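Final report, Chapter 2: Outcomes

The project's central promise was a pipeline that accepts a single protein chain and returns its three-dimensional structure in a standardized token representation, suitable for archiving and comparison. That pipeline is now operational. To close this chapter, we reproduce one record exactly as it appears in the project archive, with the input sequence first and the structure output second.
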Amino acid sequence: MATENMNRLEDPIDVMPLMHKAFRAVSDRTEEMASKASTLEDIEELNQAFGFWVKQILYHATVEDEVMTGPLKDGQPVRDNETEHADLAGKAGELAEFIAKGPGAGLAESVRDAAFTLEDEQHKELEDRFHEVEAALHQVLGDKKVTARTIRHIHSRVMGVRILELDHFENEEAFVCSLVRDEIDEAGQLYMVRRLLIDDSAEDPRWIIDWVHSELDEADQALLKDLEVRFEGAVAQPA
């Protein structure tokens, strides 16, 4: 949430709803493409759009698991929890586990456990739905044949993924972001959001933050820009 200074996020983790806006913009466009597809060329364009959607989630999920949900689950400071993770980016069509752990500070342990279980179930279902869309797209492209029936099936599957994604974002904003605000200091949060927005391993490290920026209105762009200044000015980033 923004502070009294409308160009500043009170907590760095409050950038998550802005990132979710960008994800929703991609999923909305992808669903619209699926609803209007009628030719093989349309399916090829849809396949590219879907691939970009998955690419974003793969990166987001992998980093989220490493620097946010993992430390929260373990109860360790984010800055002291640099561990090895599987390189999921090379596994075409597979989603990294992005389990939003925790329903918020002060809730009973049984409620936390229930939230963990819910997130696990959502992740598994979302992963399965992505595989279904991929399989349907690849079958059409392989057969080089488009029918009204296949279009309906692809569209319904894309809609299913989008709904599950929205459910996940709601849980993440309600539970995980609350835990981060309560349990991780500003320096740790700045490190966390920088990792989510800047991909130092990529040829263009800014591909994520520039994409997010492009999907936001001017007010949200100002918030994102201020946050970038803050995390780039932070010192002693973990190696």
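Archive annotation: The two ends are 29 Å apart (CA to CA).
This record, like all others produced under the grant, will remain available to the consortium after the project formally closes.
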